[in-house]
Amino acid sequence: MLQTYEAVLQPNWGLEFSGPTPPHFDRAQKVLVTVLQDDVEDAGSAPLQADWAQVTGLLKDSTLFGADPLAAQQGMRKEWR
C-alpha cells in the first residue's frame, strides 16, 4: 500500500518530515517527490487556501452543462448503478 508523508525537501536533499511523529523505516525506501510550491518560506505552516471566486462562472457557457441540471444529475446517477 502506498503511504503519503508530508515533508520539506531541503537544498542539501535532506527530507524534513512534518507532524508529531516522523516515519521510521528499517531500510531504504523508493520514493517519488512532487514539488508543490517553489518556496516553502512563502507558504508558512498554513494549508493552501483556494480562492473559489476565481473559478465562479467559468463553466456557465459550456456545452457540457447546457442541459437541465436535474436531468444531468439523474443521468449520471443512472450510470453509477
Give an overview in words.
It is a single chain. This protein is of the alpha+beta class. The protein has a domain of 36 residues. It contains two helices and two strands, in the order ββαα. It has a two-stranded antiparallel sheet with strand order 1-2. A hairpin with a 5-residue loop joins strand 1 and strand 2. The longest helix is centred in the last third of the chain and has 12 residues. The relative contact order is 0.08. The model has no long low-confidence stretch (mean pLDDT 78).
Mean pLDDT: 78
What order do the helices and strands follow? EEHH
Low-confidence stretches: none
Quote the beta fraction: 5-15%
Number of strands: 2
Distance between the first and last residues' Cα: 28 Å
Q: Strand order within the widest sheet?
A: 1-2
Number of helices: 2
Rg is 21 Å
The biggest sheet, with number of strands, parallel, antiparallel or mixed sense and barrel status, is: 2 strands, antiparallel
Class based on secondary structure composition and strand pairing: alpha+beta
Sum up the overall morphology in one term: elongated
Helix content: 10-25%
